[in-house]
Specification:
Elements: E1 4-5, H1 6-18, H2 23-27, E2 43-44, H3 46-60, H4 63-73, H5 79-85, H6 91-106, E3 116-119, E4 122-128, H7 137-149, E5 160-166, E6 170-176, H8 182-190, H9 192-215, H10 237-245, H11 250-259, H12 265-272, H13 276-290, H14 295-304
């Protein structure tokens, strides 16, 4: 069974580019990562993903170098995280949402169900790799860097790692997130209604995503997720409905299918074998047709509300 969304492999490749690491060497010999009939898989094996993480850590020179790579790549790597976090005002609710909801869409075998509030913008949680999956301290070390940098998605200072205990299968974290100043809190109250509406829509969107991903049969990850104009089964029924409603061209429907997955223009261009400039043109047309100004708005509109 394949446990990890290929989106996490894209994230690792973004880090490799930021560190001048050979991407081919990073994934060499890993069977579940290989394209099938020219199409990238939707899911990859946990063991292969862990191997990529551990190779990357070795290739860049250790955990501290991985942290620096994440810091360098944060403007471009995993842009959906910044889009999702921007719905929230305070860092802890945003982080809680990402860890308890988003992680479930990226990994079938990893879930953080409880994040304990310690007061004073401090939280504690435990992250576990269950049997029989391959244990990896490097996976937990990568989480440390991700957590430290997470507040940057809300344009806040780094979080402070107070304590982390790492074992091959389990890691416990105590982290202090930056405190938002009183003026920002007053501003937050002024926009709380709008933020709450967006948060509800986002939560509904992820409920649908989780339901879709968990309901996919084993071995179904061979396609590229293209929305077919002939009435074939799409990745998500709501996405197909929106593609119909927006009267997208056949090529725009292909771009749209990958766009609502959170794929970057470069990845969409590679998947559809065309130039990145061509994809930029189609994305612009899609956003205008949907009457939204960003990918984040498109994702909430398409997956968080019915047309």
């Amino acid at each position: 069974m394949r446990e990890v969304s290929v989106r996490m492999l894209h994230f690792c490749r973004d880090l490799a580019r930021a560190s001048d690491v050979d991407e081919r060497a990073l994934v060499a010999g890993l069977d579940s990562i290989r394209p099938v009939a020219g199409k990238e898989p939707d899911w990859i094996d946990w063991d292969d993903f862990v191997e990529v993480i551990e190779r990357f850590e070795r290739m860049v020179g250790g955990a501290e170098a991985v942290g620096r790579a994440m810091r360098d790549a944060i403007p471009t790597a995993y842009p959906e995280l910044r889009a999702f976090a921007s719905v929230f005002v305070l860092p802890i609710p945003a982080f809680r949402f990402v860890m308890t909801r988003l992680m479930g869409t990226m990994y079938r075998n990893i879930a953080v169900e409880t994040i304990e509030d310690l007061g004073g913008d401090r939280v504690r949680w435990t992250q576990t790799i269950p049997e029989p999956y391959r244990a990896s301290e490097a996976f937990h070390r990568g989480t440390v860097s991700m957590v430290e940098l997470f507040p940057r998605n809300l344009d806040l200072p780094d979080a402070r790692i107070e304590r982390v205990t790492i074992a091959p299968r389990e890691a416990e974290f105590i982290v202090q997130f930056p405190t938002v100043d009183p003026l920002a809190l007053r501003s937050a109250r002024a926009v709380s209604s709008a933020a709450n509406v967006l948060a509800v829509q986002l939560d509904e969107a992820f409920s649908k995503i989780i339901e879709t991903l968990r309901g996919r049969p084993e071995g179904s990850g061979s396609g590229n997720g293209t929305l077919r104009s002939d009435g074939g089964s799409p990745r998500h029924a709501d996405a197909r409905d929106w593609a119909d409603r927006l009267a997208l061209s056949p090529r725009q429907r292909e771009v749209f299918a990958l766009l609502v997955e959170g794929r970057a223009n470069k990845d969409i261009a590679a998947a559809l074998h065309c130039s990145e400039r061509n994809i930029e043109f189609h994305v612009g047309r899609i956003l205008r047709s949907a009457r939204v100004s960003s990918r984040a708005e498109l994702l909430v509109k398409v997956l968080g509300a019915r047309p």
